[in-house]
Structures are given as structure tokens and as C-alpha cells.
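Notebook, p. 212. Picked up where the previous page left off. The plan for this session was modest: take the two constructs that came back from the sequencing core last week, fold each one, and keep the raw output in the notebook itself so nobody has to go hunting through shared drives later. Recording the first one now, exactly as returned: residue sequence, then the C-alpha cell string.
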Amino acid sequence: MNSLSSLMRLLPAACVVWTGWRVRKGALPPSRLAQKLEKAGPAYIKLGQMLATRPDIVGEDVARAMEHLQDRLPPFAGAKARAVIEREFARPLTTLFSRFDAPVAAASIAQVHRAATTGNVEVAVKVLRPGIEAQFARDLDALFLFARIAEKFSAEARRLRFIALVQTLAASVALELDLRMEAAAASELYDRTSADAEFRVPHVDWARTSGRVLTSEWIDGTPIRDPAALRAAGHDPRKIALTLVRSFLTQALRDGFFHADMHPGNLFVDSAGRLVAVDFGIMGRLDAPMRRFMAGTLAGFLTRDYRKIAQLHYDVAFVSPHHDMETFAQALRAIGEPIFGKSAREVSMARLLGQLFETTRRFDMQAQPQLVLLQKTMVVVEGVARGLDPDFDIWEASRPVAERWVSENLGPEAHLARAAEGFSALGKLAQDLPQLVRNAEELSQMVAEGGVRLHPDTARQIAREQDRRTRPLWLALFALAIVMALAGLLRSYGAF
């Protein structure tokens, strides 16, 4: 790579940063920043999509200007979409669809058409933008160059692991550009959530799906971005906000597999009041140890037990032992107490982000690139919930999900269940028998006192149940500061 071409690759990022700085100074309208992001390429558009959900951070005017980046970008010609489909399946489009309408939504990577199959089934047909792979390759090259330069000259960039963050983004993009992988993700999430009464996933038409085309069930629903339309359709936006957050946490904790692109353009409410998600190009996974850590951290904040949260982090060596644990617990308290039980109107997320970012730096905690999707999704989900209910309390919304997971996976009841499952294996039975006896005695006492309930010591047992080899999930609910690392690749947050 010669120096001139390297410099040219950085020009889009430099242009976005300069425009963002001028927007902040009031010299330009926010619409100009949205235009610059749109023109800079698909990676920059994805950054704008996230910012559109956080008016509390970037301001109402900037967030509104970014909204069209979610699913209202200029579409490409329908003739090109038809050509892609016919090339993918090596047959005329009319042998697949009896009707193929104009695009109904267009985003950075693909656009969606409503159509009817030859069997008269209403479907949504997603088609990749022509040439999108080359565009993303160009953007990623620029981001990698930016990250290498930043890590060479900045200790902070090395701590935040800019290069690893871009590598994570690149791996995610590679999956997103193969619509067969998206179809598989949709199918898996459909299977995992099919019994959930308030969340729904459209099923995939595999016969009309390929690497560049994805066909799925058509969803008639009200867009979640419009609270007035939701109310007019008989839905309660506050209840939908609750369903959104609990569905996300349930997917992350229960399944370890979650929709990681829950911006308003991908969410609808059907006539039965169920939340419907579409667009499964970006999905996240958490292994069992990480889910245990997430639940432990969340439960620690819910019980305001900051020392236990601190202990979790020291147990997994996330915080260097040369830092005093009590001081770290004090820093966690300084973050948690001012916002505990407060409504969204009473909490400045911009100030919270700054405090979290300062804390990570003070205790030398490295960014965890593998957690970027979880943290980014939490930012987006909370932002969408705030749009539906300005007084949304994410603590209370999270409590039932966390307590249920704790009860089923970490409490005495879970020990009994695991022992029962392995009863036929004598080695497993011998291993669990002492704990089984103790748990049986505890449950007997519960029954004698009026029924089986969640053990009062369950929350306090979480820390002791952690696998010391697990990777950390620092402040899983409010680890928003790490997301700033990704945005920092463009130096954009500092420009707003």
C-alpha cells in the first residue's frame, strides 16, 4: 500500500470528523453530518444507525437527522434486484414469484421488496446491494489503517484495542454479507423463541434463499419507531418497551444467542401485540461462563452489592490486583447509586458514559472486543425503550429476567435439577450428593414456611458460583463506555 492510497482511505473518516465538529459548534445543521455518514460508506452508516437511537447522548436534532439511515436510504433500481435474483437461482424471476413489488425499505447493505410466491404466499425478499462487498472492504481497510496508526501513537488506543475491535467488526460484516448465514440465524432464533408469547421471528423460505437473496414470511405490523401509530393501533408503547428489553435480556441470558441489531427500523408490533424482529444479519453469542458472569454482575447491581461485583472482576483477573478492591467497589457505587431507581428523565446518559469511560481508564481495564455486539445492542435497546417510554426504568425491567435466570441456574433449585438429570450416572450423583442433601433440607424448610420460593441467598451465591476461568463481562447492563471505543475509530463521539 503506497502512502498516497493510504492517505486517501482516511479521507472519509477525516471528513466525517470535521463535519461532526462543525455540527457541534453550530456551524452546520445535523442533516449535513447524516449526509456525510451516508456518503462515506456502509461502515459509517452503521455508526449513524446507532447514534440515531441515542438522542440523550448526541441530542434530539442529531438523532432525528440520523433516523433515515436505519432503513430509508435511497434504493437501487428494481431491475438490478431482479437481475441479482435471476443470476442467483439461474432461472426467470417469474418461476419464483408471481408478483415482485418496488422496494419497501433500503439500508446500507441490502433492500427489501414485498412479493408473492408462485403459491401466492406473501413474502419479504431481501437483496444485497450490487458491489457492497467491495465498498465494505474499502471502509474496513480505512478503519484498520486508522486503528494501526492510533495504537502506534496512543497508549489509550492500545488499551482499548482498536485493532481487535475492527477485527471483530470485520468478522461480523463477513457474516452479514452472506444472506444464507442470516437465514440460518433467523431460523435458529425462530426455534429458540417459538414458545415466547410476546416475541416473534418470521420463518425463512429456504427454497428462495441464496448467498445474495433471502426470502422470508411477510410481516404486517406497526413500526416501533412511531409511538403515536402504536397507540392508534391499540398498543401500549410502555408495555412494548418492557417487552423489548426483557426479550433481549432473555435471549442473551437464557439462550446465549441474541439479535444484535435491534434498531427501530428492524422492529414491529403485530396485530396480536407481539414484538416482531426482522433483519438477522448481526447476531451475538455468549457462552455459558459468560452468561453466568453477566447474570452475576446484573444481579449485583440490582441488589446494590458493589463489593460482590468488584470481587467478581478480581476473581477473573479483569482488574489488576495492584488496584485496591475496596476502591474499585467504591467506583462502582459512584456509578450505580446516582441512577438506581431513577427514571430516564433523571439520568444523563452522556454524563454516565463519561464516568464509565473514566473508570475503565483508572483501573487499567482493557476493552473486550468479543463483547462489542452485546454492549452495542444494549445501547441501542435502551435507546429504543426510552423513545417509547421516557420514564423507562431499565433496572426494574431487568429484575424479573435476572432473578429467573439466577433461580434456574445458580440457586439451590438448580442444583437439584442438575442432580436429577444426572441421577443415572453414579459418578455425577456421588459428586453432587452432599450438596443435594443440603439443598433438599433447604427446600423442605421453604415448604414448611409456606411454599417454595426463590432462595434468599441466591443473589449472594452468584459470586461463589462463578467459573474463575471465565472471561469478564464488565457492567453488562451499562457497559456503554466500551462502545465508545468503536466510535473512537472515527473520533466521532468527541466531535458531537
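Okay, moving on. Second construct, recorded in the same format:
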Amino acid sequence: MKRNKIFANATVMVVFALLSTSTFAQLPVSGAAGDPYPNMPVIAPIGVRIENHIKINESAKGPSIDPSKGYRLQELGKGLYMITDNAIQCMFLVYETGVVLADAPEQLAQYIPKAIAEVTNKPITHFIYSHSHADHVGGAGSLNLGDHTVIIAQEETKRLLVRANDPARPVPTVTFKDNYKLKVGSQTLELSYHGNAHEPGNIFIYAPAQRTLMVIDIIFPGWIPWRRLALAQDVPGYFAQMEEINKMDWDVLVSGHVERSGTHSDVALQIEFMNDLRNTARQALKSTKFTDGLNPDDKENPWAAFDDYIDRVVIKTVNTLTPKWSTKLAGFDVFIWDHCYTIEQSLRLDEH
């Protein structure tokens, strides 16, 4: 993959690119890029484009998508279905007189009516927000939900959607604080809020008859989490919710992303990785000396001193994790640097 060569040349290329523009040519510029840090990982750092990434593990892959359809419909049992394009997911439940839809991702919105029509001609009577983020619910406004459609969300999600004032994400008509049981005909969904982790208002959606749990942007079956611990707003909360998911009684997990649904083994594997990440970073923080090897000219610059220290902590963490995890979780080399920087900040600021 020529990672070391690409890294060594990339910094110099960035400096030359900046100097070649009239905007940056007016600014004072430091000397040319120096040597990479000692023991630089073979995994390319953030911002460096490489020839190719590590191949996706077979265990992370899901059933293929029919190109003529653009989506895949997965039956979860007893009227419950997942819709996915093998990158993002939503779920719907059919009952006697209608359909309950949980989430409407922007890139799936065009397929949702077609997928539902494969199963039933009944209307969408209820829509559930897992949380407020547009990538998962930004297609709601395009579905022409009727005036009588009940739109349900946790109260924090409503607050965020009122603030967003986005026609693509209609404001909920029913909200709850901790728990909400939706019973429609013979079907039931149990909604619960477990506090902030990914973002305020992100809920658990449990289908007891189908033994299926939907929790978005926490678990990534077979894959390393999305960058910066899935953009978790509360990192300790993120760890706690993984444990909660693992302790619950379910058979199938709809996680919102990646190629397939999840299992308890997927959750356990991610918890193992996350614990390794946290423990390794904690040890790197303890064993790395502040300003050790820093250019003396930068010692009066606290931003430079901290940046140097953090970089060296992260380098140790990436190097330690790579032998074990680069072959176990798909996308490891894509986001491992993001995760190591994120956990380093959380350990120093949240758990100090």
C-alpha cells in the first residue's frame, strides 16, 4: 500500500501546495516539513490519501444488493422488516391496518415506498425518529406523510428538530421522556431513552415479539465504528450504552449502518475493541512525557506542545492496536486514528 512513502511525502506536498497559492503566500510560513515521528505507524494518518485500504473482512459483509432495485429487504419476522442499501438501514412494522416506519434515511427515502409495497399496500400511520440526525431521518419530509400520521420521538429529539426548522424532518407530534409503548393492532414496539451517548434523544426501539432491537450509531456489526467514536457527544455514555445493548435480551440488532444486521457476538467484539482502545490509550498517556523531543523553539507555544504530546500518545496507541485489530474489524485503517485522538481527549477531560 506504500503507506510509509506516501506519509513521508504528503506533508511536504501539502506545504508546497499552500505556498503555491496567492492566499497562503501572504502568510508567514514555518520551515519545510520535518521527519515523521519516530515509530510512525504503517496505517496512514488522517488527511493522507493512500492507494487503497485494507480489504473488507468476509465476516463484515452482508447479502448483496440487486443493482436493479438499489436496496435489500430483510424480513425480521412477524411483520417486521429492515430496508438497507448495505450502507444505511431503517425498519418498518406491518400491523392490521397500517405501517409503523422507524427512520427514513436520506439515501433510502426513494426506496422506502417501494420496499413497503413489496409487503403491503397499507399506509404509514406512525413514524418514529431514532434521533434527529439528517442522515437517518432526513428523508421523512419526502414521504408525504399524511396529516393524521403520528410522529413519535424522545423530547430531546423534538427540541433539536424545532431548532433545526428543517422541512425534511417534520416536528414530532408525540414525545416521551423515558419510555413509550406503541401498541398498534396486535403489534408492539417499546421505545426507551438511556441518556446521551451518540446525541441527546437517541433511543432504543425494541420489538418484543420479533426479538429485534434497533439502536442507531452505537454498534457497527463487523466494522470499526464510524469516525470519532461515531461522533459520540458523550464518550463515557457511549461505552455505557454498548454494555446496556449487550445485556438486553434480543436476537437481531438493527444498527443503522454497514452491510448487515447484528448479533450479540458483534456487540461483544466491539466492546472488546473499545476496551482495548481505552486501556491502550490510558497506558500511552501515562508512559508519554510531555514536551519530550519537542523543538525548543516551540516550547513557548502551548498549542504546539500539546499537539506534539497528543500525537505521540496516539502513535503509541495506533501501533499497539494494529496487530490485533487490523484484521478483525473492517475499516480499521480508515478510522483508527480518529478513534485514538477521540479517546485520548476523553480520558484526559472526562475521566481525569
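Notes on construct two before I forget. Residues 3-57+275-349 form one domain.
Flagging for discussion at group meeting.
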